[in-house]
Amino acid sequence: MRLYKKYPNRRLYDTENSCYVTIDNIRESILKGESISVTENSTGNDVTRSVLLQILTEQEEAGHEPVLTNRAIEQIIRFYGDRFGHYVSSYIEHSMLMFLKHQDQYREQMKQMATFNPVNAMKQMMDLWNPAASDKNHTNGRDNDG
Fold first, then answer.
1. 3-state secondary structure of 39
2. Nearest-10 Cα torsion for 39, 45, 51, 54
3. Which residue pairs from 35-39 have beta carbons closer than 8 angstroms and sit at least 24 positions apart in sequence?
4. HSE-CB of 53 using CA atoms within 13 angstroms
């Protein structure tokens, strides 16, 4: 986990590399797969969520397609203070992890579909349906005692 400190002047400090960073540097770390933690230097309060939300907002302002629709955000807001709020956050996190797990499998399937040749598949199916071709396939590879 990469640790950052946020100073009162809103500057962010990377404790691992001992240097000041921008919000874009933190976003790049996240894109590389790193988890982050941001604390206020003066109080020690965890401000990670506000930094993450700032990154989301800036991504959308830069023209990226929003991942969370307005309707989804409204529903999430309604769960604050609700006794089921904890379950919803666990559900969303679990769903996201499952999506990421299956994303690689989905990409592999899409790659296979891109290289799929329907003409060859059709020939194979026709061979299976054609009795003469089927008999020929069954006799190939077997010794014929004749």
1. strand
2. -150
3. 35/1, 35/2, 36/1, 36/2, 36/3, 36/4, 37/1, 37/2, 37/3, 37/4, 38/3, 38/4, 38/5, 38/6, 38/12, 39/3, 39/4, 39/5, 39/6
4. 5
Quick: pLDDT tens for 17-66: 999 999 999 999 999 999 999 999 999 999 999 999 999 999 999 999 99
Which residue in this structure is represented by tokens 């003066």? 42
- β-strand pairing of 2-6 with 36-40: parallel
**Cα distances (angstroms) measured from residue 141 to each of 26, 30, 127, 130, 146:** 62, 56, 16, 19, 14
Q: Which amino acid is at 123?
A: K
Q: What is the CA 38 to chain-centroid distance, rounded?
A: 22
Q: What is the pTM of this model?
A: 0.67
**In residues, how long is the chain?**
146
* Per-residue pLDDT tens digits for 107-125: 888 787 777 777 777 777 7
End-to-end CA distance of the chain: 73
Quote the CA–CA distance of 6 and 9 in Å, as a whole number: 8
